[in-house]
Design a protein that fits this description.
Blueprint: E1 6-8, E2 13-20, E3 31-35, E4 38-49, E5 55-59, E6 63-67, E7 71-82, E8 94-99, E9 102-106, E10 109-111, E11 114-121, E12 125-128, E13 131-135, E14 138-140, E15 143-149, H1 151-155, E16 163-164, E17 167-171
Parallel strand pairs: 1-4, 2-4, 3-6, 4-7, 5-8, 6-9, 7-10, 7-11, 8-12, 9-13, 10-14, 11-15, 12-16, 13-17
Length: about 170
Amino acid sequence: NAFKGNFDGQGYSITGMRIINSSNNAVHGFFGIVSGATISNLKLNIVLDFSNHTSSVKSGGLASMIQSSSFVQDVHVTIEHIFPPDASGNYDGNLTLLGGFVGQSNSSTFKDCSLIGKPLYMSSYRSGGFVGASASCVFRRCFSDVEIYDLVKATNTGSQQHTGGFAGFSSLDN
């Protein structure tokens, strides 16, 4: 079920949280899905651990998906991603809609938010530092500071990976 309420973190920090990808094609984040909600005044320090599985859909530190006129203000996420290496020591997973802050956002507003993350592998489909993919969203005074890996690999595969430092894919955003 989607979170649809009002969450005021009152400026507190949540640290030491580790979310482990326990199954393929699961959604991950502090909140799973946020719909028509307000989230404010919160700091998260979180680890998203993909070492057990290499397939995931919609993953982000705050939420896997934020939609339906949700409002997020003064939320700051510090995230570490853990990925499994292949036989050569390189990451080669099958992740979709991976963002440091949110995996996918639709018709929502983000104000005064930030993401600091490491590492983010851009060989994932629609992956971005702040948001994997967004449509019809407003971003005001938001930023991402991420360590990006495999960008060359993502752009040389011949397929449309849609990657970026802030957004992997963006449509009709302000």
